[in-house]
Every structure is written in structure tokens, then in C-alpha cells.
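Still learning folds. Look over my entry:

…
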Amino acid sequence: MAAISVATDRRGTVAAALKGDWPLLLFLAALPLGIDARISAGWFLPLWFDEVFTGTIAGQATAAGLLKWCLSELTGPAFYVPMWLWAKVAGVGDGALRAPALALSIAAPLLIAWRGHPDRRVRL
């Protein structure tokens, strides 16, 4: 079974290492298509209600303002504190609010492919 880093086999070729590993090949083909669809389908649209709400909380000027919002929000600080810190670096524009979700939606399947169940057929 080839690792997600697409290690080469003893002959030294990537193609030979991937031969017969159709789940990995399917994943490597689908991931860029999914990323493209996510970006082209919604990146330039106006923010959705939940994104506006996140921007409101993440845009608080002080930690006290953030704490006040987090105490009144059901989900608590686990999502909003990292977004608040991110907003301090990148701002609260449309792209800045969507960038972490895009990065994590790319990282999650890569992490699963890299460290997920050793039998790829389990996820089918």
C-alpha cells in the first residue's frame, strides 16, 4: 500500500508504486476537482449568515468583547478564539473568513489519507 507521500517502489517509479492502488488514484484525482469546485462555486459570493456571524465575533477589538460573545454563543470558544486570532492577522474580509475553512477542507482528507485506516476499502 502506497503512502500519501506517493513513495516510490524499489524500481523507483511513482507509477509503479501507485499501480493497483485505485483508491489512492481516485483520491488524488478527486481532491483537485473538489478544491476547484469549492473555490469556483462560492469563493466570490457574498458571505452566508453563519460567516457574517463568525466575522462579527472574530472582529471584536478586545479579548473582553470576544469573551462576551462566546459566553452568549452555544458553541463556545473552541471555534471563535482561533478565528479571532486569525482575524487579527488577516482581517475580517470575505476571503480572510473563508481561508481557514478552505485550508482545513483540504487538510482533512489529506490527513485521513495519510494517517487514516490502513485498509482504504473501509471508507468506501
